[in-house]
Structure formats: C-alpha cells, structure tokens
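To the team - magnesium ion complex, inputs and output below.
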Amino acid sequence: MRIGYGYDAHAFAEGRKLVLGGVTIPHPQGLAAHSDGDVLIHAVCDALLGAAGLGDIGQHFPDSDAQYRDIDSRILLQEIVLLLREHSLGISNIDSTIVAQAPKLAPHIEGMRKVLADDLGMHLSRVNIKAKTTEGMGYIGRAEGIEAHAVVMLEELQPGTLKDE
Ligand code: MG
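Output:
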C-alpha cells in the first residue's frame, strides 16, 4: 500500500468560470490559474503522484507550457491515471476536502464524485469529497480563494514494479 497527500489553493479572479471537481458551479468569480483552476482535481493529482513517488503536477504539466493553458484539469487527471497503470498501481480510495467560504458546495458534491469516479475508473463508494468553510477566518474566510486537500491510497498490483533506487 502507498499513501499520498495533495494540497492546492487558487485565488478568485473575475471573468473566469468556477470549476471544481470537473463541475462548473454558478458563481460570480472563478479561480485564477494557467489551467481551468480546478483546485480539487489538482490536489487529487498531487496525492496520486505523491503516493506513486512520481513528483508533482507542476513537473508533469509545467505552467510554462502553452499546451496546458486553460486546459480542462480532467485531462491531466486522466493522464495521471494512465501513468499509474503503466506502473501497475491501482487506486484503493480517495478522500478529499474543499475549503471555501462561498459558494455553497453541498449541492455539487455528488456531481464531483461522479466525475472523479468516472475519470479514475473507481466505484463511487471509494471516492469521498467533503466541503468546509473556515467560519470566516483567514484568506478563505475573506473569500479570496479556495483550497483543497486530498489523501489517496494506492495498491501495488504487481509488487516491486516501482524500482527502489
Ligand atoms: Mg493548481
């Protein structure tokens, strides 16, 4: 078994769509980013790469590369799923938390779970997403941005495939 942790934060920006967990959420502002700014998917990507010992999202998809401009983060997630498959790693489960003062995320959680479960080829019961506020404290509380955390467990389908160096 291999455990990975991922974290991401993005600032709100005018004139952008708010995309979280692959779901477009009605809100006056979106998140500033080179990609679509999907903090939840970015945190999940980093958790998956972390568990696999394969670095982080910025190393695989550098924001200096024009091909990733405004890219749908689901494409990055799907590429990481292929990478894990190449390394004979299966995903056991994912737990995650989005921290946002606004908008209200509860109505969108099930939609996000379905997106993640689809892209990861996992049963819905193995993908969990929680939403919290900070009760008005700090930069999240002032609605300056949104952050996300994710923890994953991977299973080595063929033990020893990832070489110890
Ligand atoms: Mg990010």
